[in-house]
From TrEMBL:
One of its GO terms (molecular function) is ABC-type transporter activity. Keywords: Antibiotic resistance, Cell membrane, Membrane, Transmembrane, Transmembrane helix, Transport. It is a multi-pass membrane protein. Residues 43-277 form the ABC transmembrane type-2 domain. Belongs to the ABC-2 integral membrane protein family. It comes from Nocardiopsis flavescens. It is found in: Cell membrane; Membrane. One of its GO terms (biological process) is response to antibiotic. PANTHER family: NODULATION PROTEIN J. One of its GO terms (cellular component) is ATP-binding cassette (ABC) transporter complex. This is Transport permease protein. It comes from the Bacteria. InterPro entries: ABC2_TM (IPR013525), ABC2_TM_bact-type (IPR047817), ABC_2_transport (IPR000412), Nod_factor_ABC_transporter (IPR051784). The chain crosses the membrane at residues 43-66, 78-99, 120-149, 155-181, 188-207, 251-272.
């Protein structure tokens, strides 16, 4: 079904039930567009991939000797799962920047005028970022292994940990697309990104909630990033997964619940916002 915008002359194309193949093809075309953009300008993605490694080296080598883990254990093994979680969360900025740049340059309006699935642009952006996230995970895991991190569980548990990390990443990507469509300008992305840092540092990514002041430890235990970090540490068999609060004891449940709730909110809101552009 095609709908014409009388004010701007743009057309949006809404998917019919039989258009699944066309939707998948359009989404893959948009994904390939992102790959081509990375190939033309590899510096940005490269910095994004290496930034978590730099943080890992700084915390593991410079601060690791003074850090303790509740219940004992090696701090590097505690740190790597937490930093993997932050790597998934910090991708929010890159997604927002790409969306706002396309929006500001009118690229999204041009795509909306083409005979293509209306949400393929957003899906292509998300798939490309998710593939980049897999590369980021592998790089951080390799760097952690070089610094002494090891996983001690089964292969199935390790794959489940990676699945939780990618689920969190998918939720953050959906939020990034939605927020990017809302803020509209690249210079406003930093204002949103600044809000992510307090959320990251009030989690259990770098320190055990047991080592924090009572009120801050309670906040950290209920932080969505802490839920994923605790569940991933448990699945990898790394120290720091134990806890006495309900949130700590049910971290795996919360690590699935929080991202799913974010996806259920952000995905339809992003699609609705995209369809309403230039109206």
């Amino acid at each position: 079904m095609t709908r014409t915008n009388d004010l701007h002359g743009a057309r949006t194309h809404e998917e019919a039930p039989g258009d699944a193949a066309r939707w998948a093809l359009d989404s893959w075309t948009m994904t390939r567009r992102e790959f081509a953009r990375w190939a033309r300008n590899p510096l940005g993605p490269l910095i994004g991939l290496l930034f978590p490694v730099m943080m890992l080296v700084m915390f593991a080598l410079f601060l690791g000797g003074s850090m303790t883990v509740a219940g004992g254990g090696d701090y590097t093994e505690f740190l790597v799962p937490g930093l993997l979680v932050l790597t998934m969360a910090f991708g929010l900025e890159g997604t927002m920047t790409a969306v706002t740049r396309d929006l500001e340059r009118g690229v999204l309006d041009r795509f909306r005028s083409l005979p293509m699935a209306s949400t393929a642009v957003l899906v292509g952006r998300g798939v490309a970022d998710l593939i980049e996230s897999v590369a980021g995970l592998l790089i951080v895991l390799a760097a952690g292994f070089a610094l002494g991190w090891r996983w001690h569980g089964t292969l199935g548990a390790a794959l489940a940990a990676v699945g939780l990390l990618l689920l969190l990443r998918a939720a953050m990507l959906a939020c990034g697309v939605w927020l990017g469509l809302i803020v509209g300008r690249p210079e406003l992305v930093m204002a949103v990104q600044i809000l992510v840092w307090p959320l990251a540092f009030t989690s259990s990514a770098f320190a055990s909630p047991e080592a924090m002041p009572g009120w801050l430890g309670a906040v950290a235990e209920w932080n969505p990033m802490s839920a994923t970090a605790t569940a991933v540490r448990d699945l990898f068999g790394n120290p720091g997964a134990a806890g006495t609060s309900w949130a700590s004891e049910n971290a795996l449940f919360l690590a699935v619940l929080w991202p799913v709730l974010l996806l259920l909110v952000a995905c339809p809101m992003a699609a609705a916002r995209f369809r309403s552009l230039s109206r």
